[in-house]
UniProtKB/TrEMBL annotation:
Residues 7-172 form the Glycosyltransferase 2-like domain. Keywords: Glycosyltransferase, Transferase. This is Glycosyltransferase. It is an enzyme of class 2 (transferase). InterPro entries: Glyco_trans_2-like, Glycosyltransf_2, Nucleotide-diphossugar_trans. One of its GO terms (molecular function) is glycosyltransferase activity. The lineage of its organism: Bacteria, Pseudomonadati, Pseudomonadota, Alphaproteobacteria, Acetobacterales. Pfam families: Glycos_transf_2. Its EC number is 2.4.-.-. SUPFAM superfamilies: Nucleotide-diphospho-sugar transferases.
Length: 305
């Protein structure tokens, strides 16, 4: 039997009700000429998720793994020994790929041997039209919903988003792993976001080059609660925590001034009806609070005497 040339990986937790729609989309994929493998890691589900996945074993080239200890990156690391082929494709359990998704990623990897990191288009799959106050002018849909649209071509690691990313398998064979200190772990709803971002930034800093394949498209399922202001503000905070914890050096005076200014403005706007302006200010307030929460305290730079 011919070895597949690429492996798709995602982890899931307690998604028994939603997974059939996702797995049906995967079952409709056009296989690349060299074949593919799907590895799903059940990350401690207790709702029958594993049984739902197993029910698709006759439709998909499927390997099901179990990682009982919660932690998305822990689950992804568990899957790495199962990689087959030269391309590891990572996605999420709420993604609907276009039928030619893998064909497009395979073509990009074959056509651009100079690149080790690959990304593709991510579009929101809305449950209903977004309300007027939920505007791209107010908040970054890239942060909220992993939306990514751009032309094909060389790209920075920051252009590649978790629901649609691929990495040369040789990088993992050489020992690279996902950082288990970041991302959802089932213990803290205000976890530091940025699990795939942390890995990609590390690889980009090490000199690995990226390529964006615009025709490799997936849709990211948006749940109704993800269009509510409370969820959006919580996500802004988690995003800030990840930025502060992983990339900031210290808590600066400038950040403190902005934090106070946005906090005062956000409190005043909280009593007004929803609007793009209100969302923008309140979102920025929660993001700054997250950055401050994730950053170390400002070091004492004063001189003795």
């Amino acid at each position: 039997m011919t070895e597949p040339s690429m492996t798709v990986v995602f982890s899931t937790r307690n998604r028994a009700q939603a997974l059939p729609r996702v797995l049906n989309a995967f079952a409709g994929l056009t296989a690349p000429h060299s074949g593919w493998k799907l590895v799903i890691v059940d990350n401690g589900s207790n709702d029958g998720t594993a049984a739902v996945i197993a029910g698709f074993s006759h439709l998909l080239p499927l390997t099901l793994l179990s990682c009982p200890t919660p932690g998305k990156n822990r689950a992804l690391n568990l899957a790495l020994p199962e990689l087959r082929g030269d391309l590891a494709v990572f996605t999420d359990d709420d993604v609907l790929p276009d039928t030619d998704w893998l064909v497009q990623l395979r073509a990009a990897a074959d056509a651009h041997p100079e690149a080790d990191l690959f990304g593709g288009t991510v579009l929101p799959d809305w449950p209903s039209p977004p309300p007027l106050w939920l505007s791209e002018q107010a908040v970054e849909f890239s942060v909220l919903y992993a939306q990514q649209r751009r032309a094909s071509g060389p790209c920075d690691h920051a252009d590649i988003f978790g629901p649609n990313m691929a990495v040369r398998s040789a990088i993992f064979a050489a020992g690279t792993r996902f950082g288990e200190h970041v991302g959802p772990d089932g213990t803290n709803p205000m976890y530091a976001m940025g699990s795939e971002t942390e890995l990609l930034r590390r690889l980009g800093t090490a000199g690995h080059r990226g390529w964006f394949a615009a025709d490799a498209r997936v849709r990211h399922i948006i749940r109704p609660e993800q269009m509510e202001e409370r969820w959006i503000l919580d996500r802004a905070f988690r995003y800030g925590v990840g930025e502060g914890r992983n990339y900031a050096k210290s808590l600066s005076l400038g950040l403190l001034v902005r934090l106070v200014a946005y906090r005062l403005a956000a409190r005043g706007l909280a009593f007004l009806p929803p609007s793009p302006r209100r969302l923008r200010i309140r979102y920025r307030d929660r993001w700054l609070a997250g950055v401050a929460s994730g950053r170390p305290l400002m070091p004492n730079t004063s001189r003795p005497g």
